[in-house]
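Intended use. Records such as the ADAM metallopeptidase with thrombospondin type 1 motif 18 entry shown here are meant for training and evaluating sequence-to-structure methods. They are not intended to support clinical decisions.
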Amino acid sequence: MVDKHGKANVTTYILTVMNMVSSLFKDGTIGSDINIVVVSLILLEQEPGGLSINHHADQSLNSFCQWQSALIGKNGKRHDHAILLTGFDICSWKNEPCDTLGFAPISGMCSKYRSCTINEDTGLGLAFTIAHESGHNFGMIHDGEGNPCRKAEGNIMSPTLTGNNGVFSWSSCSRQYLKKFLSTPQAGCLVDEPKQTGQYKYPDKLPGQIYDADTQCKWQFGAKAKLCSLGFVKDICKSLWCHRVGHRCETKFMPAAEGTVCGLSMWCRQGQCVKFGEHGPRPVHGQWSAWSKWSECSRTCGGGVKYQERHCNNPKPQYGGKFCPGSSRIYQLCNINPCHENSLDFRAQQCAEYNSKPFRGWFYQWKPYTKVEEEDRCRLYCKAENFEFFFAMSSKVKDGTPCSPNKNDVCIDGICEPVGCDHELGSKAVSDACGVCKGDNSTCKFYKGLYLNQHKANEYYPVVTIPAGARSIEVQELQTSSSYLAVRSLHRKYYLTGGWSIDWPGEFLFAGTVFEYQRAFNRPERLYAPGPTNETLVFEVSSFCSLSSQCLLLSLC
């Protein structure tokens, strides 16, 4: 590709193409605000180690996806998506030329090894290929394949790329696929501000002003091709007609680029041949409709979510107009009254819904599984009771599900949203040590103690009894020892390190609160819970070795 365009010109060509790609993703029919930013441009005059590119699109894409993953974070670089532009005539399934123009993993965007596409350089029409393949990476499927949209001309995600009177747009199905993808946690990489690692001079002219119709014909049909002169000139804004040999003109049903001269003092704008100084149909920027009524609350107790929504259709954006700024939905908490003490946890309810549904041919009793990465807290993971496996039953828990136990934050549309102690979305209000929202600890009573004793081996020794209602409980070992913390009820039911077994560090839910147990290698033990507890607890130390000493600092309020 560098040889085709020349080293001195290839950067301008690529940036021109990416400007066109950006315009396609800014078209109002896409329904979302997508910004395309080139953060780095690498020209490969020779194949670097670990990268193999040939006619076989599938193999080449796999190689490229692996290779680009190693660039993330290298020398300060970070990209959301990698695009390979190649001069090879690629084919999806064999190592020889065919009609394939691009190849992409479906829903690979933001994935380290799948956020990548391969695109064959065919001239300025390359922009439509990049937009199409990037659409696949955003989770879009071809129009008319498993969805109600027609395989219409002019749809960017149509199986065959052809313009509709020179105009390309996104179908309603493409809009829905994109909206669905952007609502998933996977799309989180797209939120941050892009950081460019290179300084690029972007063309300030339209593509057709830089590359005339003859040049565009050469890129599509070969070095001897030029603009057809048999009366097709004004039609090139809808389909570029080119001439190679004889009296025959041919087209790939792609429009001439924006700004291409189409007659005396006339140029192509939005699929129309208009006079210089006129810009064809003026952009119509989208405006929001009125807000809808509030939806039903997602929960009857415990803090659900309701929303209002609006649509960018008053009017909808046309002719390159901008999509409406701002969010299409606003959310509010509702029914924040506590649920009945004996009611089933909301996440547990969602897992239990799968008890009556066969899983791989068998029925199981499902319970929540919460030992997941932070970014997966709003997915529904369930563990089969009495079995050692768990599974993601849904990519999103229901709105209003707590992100984690004993915290106010809730899941909305698959994203963990902050909630203050005042039950307001986005609030930063926090409770003080004794549970007073926005308090200053002035109403708290603090209790502290120091435990210094020696113990014989193979015994449990009571340290302190903590009453129900306690908050901000912290037990801290002052130095490492061969003893271990244990916690039980008054009825000798052990919750932590009981029955002569030692629990691993982690989070433990008992007595109505979550206890965080820390025991790093060669570091003192620590146990903390925000409270309040709903039963009396007995804290003990256990020694499994010879005579040992224990030094504990205890505090609560």
